[in-house]
């Protein structure tokens, strides 16, 4: 069975132009038009508050080893909750909006987009809070078990997202850099690594490419979405504002993406959290097209 995905006339006007796609290819990121209505972002905010208060539609059946999962006992640190599209139906319905997938498909140059992961994020207004700093990294490093190099992330704030609130910051054009020889550490999540080491990694990679590091904090109006390529370095700073910075990081995969066996130099197998949750393919490997965890949100009519 093949679901048909369609856009309204108004939504068609919100797709990236050919020049936008070219800019994304050059810079590694793209700030969209207004893809979510004020009602939708208001619902994201109220549903997230219900979630933080303990309301779940569908709890994860298992706790993967590297799950990011803030609970009230953790206190006033930066909150990360993976699989929000799975656990919360109202939030999930907005994240599955075909328009988000259609914009991603245009940027990535693919016919089909599936959700890969989604993380609900709250950065408390606490200038000195160390956990609010997201060190420089690119997302592909966490996705070593994925075959695709076209995956991308949609950063979706629920409100105007300013530099003061610690908005996401892009290292312009860094997705085109060649990487300095990789080491086993690169597949570790930034939460497992030292911030100064990650800063150094960015500088080393820039020097290796004879590139300047141009950091662009992306000021995102409410309802707009910042997309970035899976090889684009990014991070974010302190929240020096007077309210929490609320957002979802929606990680997206192209239809071609598959699981691959990936090993560190000592032979140890790298695992992604999906690997203990998703169904198996006929070959017995984790199925990154499992509709429960990785729903398809866009497929072009011509494919
Ligand atoms: Fe990231």
Automatic annotation (TrEMBL):
Q: Which Pfam families match?
A: PhyH (PF05721)
Q: Which SUPFAM superfamilies match?
A: Clavaminate synthase-like
Signal peptide (residue range)? none
Supply the Gene3D superfamilies for this chain.
Answer: q2cbj1_9rhob like domain (2.60.120.620)
Q: Which domain of life is it from?
A: Bacteria
Tell me the protein's name: Ectoine hydroxylase-related dioxygenase (Phytanoyl-CoA dioxygenase family)
Name the source organism: Kitasatospora kazusensis
């Amino acid at each position: 069975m093949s679901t048909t995905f369609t856009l309204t006339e108004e939504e068609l006007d919100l797709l990236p132009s050919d020049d936008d796609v070219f800019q994304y290819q050059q810079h590694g990121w793209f700030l969209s038009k207004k893809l979510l209505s004020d009602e939708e972002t208001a619902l994201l905010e109220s549903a997230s508050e219900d979630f933080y208060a303990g309301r779940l539609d569908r709890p994860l059946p298992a706790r993967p080893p590297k799950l990011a999962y803030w609970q009230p006992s953790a206190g006033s640190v930066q909150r990360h909750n993976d699989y929000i599209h799975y656990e919360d139906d109202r939030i999930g319905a907005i994240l599955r909006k075909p328009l988000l997938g259609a914009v991603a498909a245009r940027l990535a140059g693919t016919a089909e987009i599936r959700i890969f992961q989604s993380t609900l994020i709250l950065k408390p207004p606490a200038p000195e809070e160390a956990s609010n700093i997201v060190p420089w990294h690119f997302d592909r490093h966490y996705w070593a078990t994925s075959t695709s190099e076209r995956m991308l992330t949609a950063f979706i704030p629920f409100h105007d997202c300013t530099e003061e609130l610690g908005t996401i910051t892009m290292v312009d054009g860094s997705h085109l850099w060649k990487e300095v020889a990789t080491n086993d550490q690169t597949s570790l999540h930034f939460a497992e690594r030292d911030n100064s080491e990650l800063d150094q990694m960015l500088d080393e990679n820039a020097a290796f490419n004879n590139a300047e590091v141009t950091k662009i904090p992306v000021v995102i109006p409410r309802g707009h979405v910042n997309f970035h390529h899976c090889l684009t370095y990014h991070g974010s700073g302190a929240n020096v504002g007077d309210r929490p910075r609320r957002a979802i990081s929606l990680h997206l995969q192209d239809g071609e993406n598959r699981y691959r066996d990936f090993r560190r130099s000592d032979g140890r197998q790298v695992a992604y959290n999906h690997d203990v949750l998703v169904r198996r393919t006929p070959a017995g490997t984790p199925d990154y097209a499992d509709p429960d965890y990785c729903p398809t949100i866009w497929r072009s009519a011509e494919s």
